[in-house]
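Listing S7. Sequence submitted for prediction.
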Amino acid sequence: MKRFTAIIALFVGASAVTLPGNRACGDVTVVLEDIDSGLPSPTGQYRWRDVADQTYAESYRDSYDYTQAIVEVTYSTDANTLYGILSAMNLKPNFAYQLKLTGTPGMLSNELIGLTGRWWQEEWNGTEWANGQNLNDNGDGLSPNPNDDLYFQRRDVNDAASPTGKHYRYTGYLVFDYFITEPNGDAALSFEINSSYHVLWKTSQRTHTANDGLVKVATFDPDPCSAAYDVDYGVSAVGIFGEWERLPVGEVWLPAGDYEAQIVLTEESFHSCSVEYGGCWAVAMAGTTYFQIPLCTVDFEEFSLFAEYWLQTGSNLPADLDTDGDVDLYDLKMFVLEWLCPCPYNWPLR
């Protein structure tokens, strides 16, 4: 009892020192970077047409790449979802992008993402992963859907010759929002992961339904003197929307768990893979992140677990938050930094 009283006193003291400078719970910024355009796109062919299908200038096509763009995603999590703001500068102008979350094959979070979104399937052909394709039967929108059923049927099919020992490899990904850039390539998007989309369409291509995502409209008049255009195309007004993958839109949540994933920006090609400069869902930029859809909150329940290890020494102590082989005041200060926040990624005290 004396030990618990003593650590309570230390906790109060650490809180008084630490809490005024405490971080916002779950507030994280991820900087997206240029990435291999074929991950996990079918071909990785970049698009060189704006959302109105107007071709960019040859000089722009020859000179632009995504190392010239600046994209940051700042987010937080709560009991149901991840939400935040995307800020972008110097993406392609008047251009449509998907914003999505992509997993890593073999990880539990990959399965959680796929069961909320979609599956990219590959097969081991003896020398490499090949025959990449999306599973495309989303049924009536309810989960599990026919794609999930096929995933579970094939997930554990053995293949001794493959690097993983399995014949199939699956990448789970979730298209959860989308946007059209400004004429200068900038964008600002507030988002919340609460929807699961199949692909984007223009309203001129497909009729929008009540089950689909919000129609987002951009009106623009490309400047033929800008770096991206050398033709005076005139004014265009284009509406885009996300076709539903899982229902209901606005109520599709990530399951609770620890996530290691990539936040990915993908070019929307509007099914123009066979059209010159039409692109084919190339990945533009991505950034790795770690987060948790809370399984717990750092509160008195976790504090009681922490107190059980106070002043112990040894290896693999759950309360040894700085992993230096003992549980002391430095670990307590790290604990206080998380006070009343969702438990961090891979939090050992639960």
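Caption to Listing S7: primary sequence and predicted structure tokens for the chain studied. The longest strand covers residues 168-180. The chain has six helices and 13 strands.
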